[in-house]
Amino acid sequence: MTTDRGQWSSKLGFIFAAAGSAIGLGNIWRFPYIAGENGGAAFVFTYLVCVIAIGLPVMLAELALGRATQRNPVGAIEAVRPGSVWKFVGILGVLTGVAILSYYAVIAGWTIGYMISSALGKPIDFGAFVSNPVAMIFYQALFLLLTIAVVSGGVEGGIERWAKILMPMLLILLVILIIRSLTLDGAMRGLEFYLKPDFSKLNYNVIISALGQAFFSLSLGMGTMMTYGSYLKKEDNAVSSGFQVAIFDTLIAFMAGLLIFPALFAVGKDPAAGPGLVFQILPDIFKALPLGNLFGALFFLLLAVAALTSTISLLEVPVAYFVDEKRWTRKKAVWTVGIATFVVGIPSALSLGASPFFSGIQIGFLNKTGFLDIMDFIWGNFSLAFGALLLSIFVGWIWGADRALAELRQGAGDFSWQGEGWKWLIKIVCPVVIFVILLNLFI
Fold it and tell me: Whole-prediction pTM value?
């Protein structure tokens, strides 16, 4: 074990860092538009059930394996089953972290461009913005440099220190913007859409969308929580920490809806506007409000902070692998992975109009066009779910749910009857449900 590995200095530091990993564009960009497309409150209710019944058990499995072995995803599985093919589950997690970071940094970079334009009062034409190759690569590189700067500081001095600054900042910005949104004329119609369930809208598609969002939002299936769990001390209560991370993550997603839906209904916009909701419709809303430039800049600063807390964790997964397994120094690992990720991400940066080739590339049977969309499907949808499926099988059946439960009970003496329920979920329910998600991706 190298001295560059590190540990969390406090439980609060871990909760802020792990919640920061889970809280990202998935909560503030993806959650509201998925909720809008799937009937509002009925989706929100289903999402909460999915987080508790599926997301949290898989998160606890990752934390248990990480803390038990004190290793990255590859090393953790190798420590439990040396020389077995299961090692490739860990390798898949490391590769998934790099791949998602490569295109996530592109979208995260947009938040900086929009924040600057909002502050200056200069509206951005989304199509022209994303088809500008210089702007796309510049903002992608800038966001990766911010991520590299934090992760190179180490677990306690970099990730934990900045999580303690960024997470309270995120909450304060959200509260300010929610108050503004709720005071708009017509905001109550948005609240009704968001908070009053119409269960007639509940169908198979809504349930599958809620399951997929729970996995995307909680950073499951790529070893992030396993890596963060490996920095926990044995006396730390991993169970209560996991619950608090899930609550924090869900709270931020819920608050994002409280911000966005009242504002949408106040200006008569369609809540089912899809992925363009944040970058194409919200800027028009802010423009129409008093002090719109200020609130627009604050909103995109909020998005940038949320994205940064996630990119930090995405980079940490492969960095931990090179520090643990290859005995690299942290700085060498951070810069090598960071530069490689930037290069891998260039086609995604150019795939929304800047390059005809990367914008037009297709995988016909998936009905996906554009390099970024294809990357998101392969790594952000399929690979996350597939990794979570294999991990739940590995923890439940190969390592053994009893061993995992014994690890979770260290520092969590009151996790008794709940632990028996967790064993049933991780061995049976989670694998079956995740398999259904995977089937749905291709149907």
Answer: 0.89
